[in-house]
Amino acid sequence: xxxxxxxxxxxxxxxxxxxxxxxxxxxxxxxxxxxxxxxxxxxxxxxxxxxxxxxxxxxxxxxxxxxxxxxxxxxxxxxxxxxxxxxxxxxxxxxxxxxxxxxxxxxxxxxxxxxxxxxxxxxxxxxxxxxxxxxxxxxxxxxxxxxxxxxxxxxxxxxxxxxxxxxxxxxxxxxxxxxxxxxxxxxxxxxxxxxxxxxxxxxxxxxxxxxxxxxxxxxxxxxxxxxxxxxxxxxxxxxxxxxxxxxxxxxxxxxxxxxxxxxxxxxxxxxxxxxxxxxxxxxx
Amino acid sequence: xxxxxxxxxxxxxxxxxxxxxxxxxxxxxxxxxxxxxxxxxxxxxxxxxxxxxxxxxxxxxxxxxxxxxxxxxxxxxxxxxxxxxxxxxxxxxxxxxxxxxxxxxxxxxxxxxxxxxxxxxxxxxxxxxxxxxxxxxxxxxxxxxxxxxxxxxxxxxxxxxxxxxxxxxxxxxxxxxxxxxxxxxxxxxxxxxxxxxxxxxxxxxxxxxxxxxxxxxxxxxxxxxxxxxxxxxxxxxxxxxxxxxxxxxxxxxxxxxxxxxxxxxxxxxxxxxxxxxxxxxxxx
Lengths: 284, 284
Known about the structure:
The structure is a homodimer. Chain A is α/β, with parallel strands linked by helices.
């Protein structure tokens, strides 16, 4: 059988976009949708199967049957996903190989999963390698420009994200007039934005800052923003998003920018210069 | 008029406890309850007035009328409190003296307020100086003992709190099996606990870790735990609280310990040894 790109798919539009890009480049694809995470409608146009995350052994054997050597892990898999794990007997052995790393923070877990996939003979590639055009670049994407207060809030957000990243926690925070309104842990960006409305002060709204963690496993967990992120931020009274250029996937770019422009909201990519000397861009 | 201890009161039981302790030591007290924060029932037994936070000039002149030289700022003042600020004309001048510090994070603001109060001739004292008996000590307060997983989660929580504290954000986080479920910013501990129920994994519950920020202004914003904290943590599926000994106020100690013991929940004070070499205890 002709080799295929294997896609292990969580939720959102990215898995289908990876599949489409690979097919457009003449490559066969096979998607494994993780039950409870991947969205059937989005996977329908492609050869696929739905499996539980806990059925790890079945996932691996199906990928081998389909002659997938290259794998992409893409699309958020929301915690708590442990309920879905219910590992089968062989899955428990695999889990033992992942070992303590499963309890070491998000990034530790992902790195261990990628290591085990490598031991099984797969090569894990980053979604951004296939979706090069979706990686956000440095510079302003919107008509609205950050003012001085916004720039100062972005700098404070960068400092907070770096402190968090060192502790392998989250990738985002919201800053308004120097005050850190919220810090992201496992709840995810959308949930964090959801609570900011009630915490904000009057006056110019806060800024969402999203960075790549230092040493982050870029092949499986790149920060992603899109129209939904912008709409959530606007609903929470924010006035802008600053993301790490070269390390953030932008989904639904046109509709995201249109939603931002309609609301006088800015979206800006932070390059190495904006991030200062301690940037992690391009390291991993 | 005989000198009095001035108490600028936020919410909760602490302002009345400070007043009671001062009176028991033979000192006259006068409480200024911040409107929308201080609770009338709790202040009723003591000489007091209610004023807006924004009426700073009236607060200062009343404190001078009452011959208060020593001041205690005590009891949480929940953000967003800016709506209550609406500073009067003279208040705006005071705010200008606080200046940019008002936008520098919680601790920067408090330090600036204390500085301005000093310039006005007041001496700001820490609530813990008057409520010495309420400062939590190192060691276990409950019958339930933290197991190895809990100890490991406490260590991870310490690392996260330190990283956050350096960025002058929050004082707490919740860790379950090595995963940081939540990080505290301006929403406060109770709100953070409120969202943990939905984020927890099955298995042994998470641990709330609360530390003093490095360089924290201990005279105005000491971490505080009590029965409400324990009940909130139990409701969120947690199984213990670890706090920084010597830097945390324990309110309603007996009912807190009773609630914890009834639920097989632990509360432990972390001394310099548990906190490692980089402890901030006793520095400020």
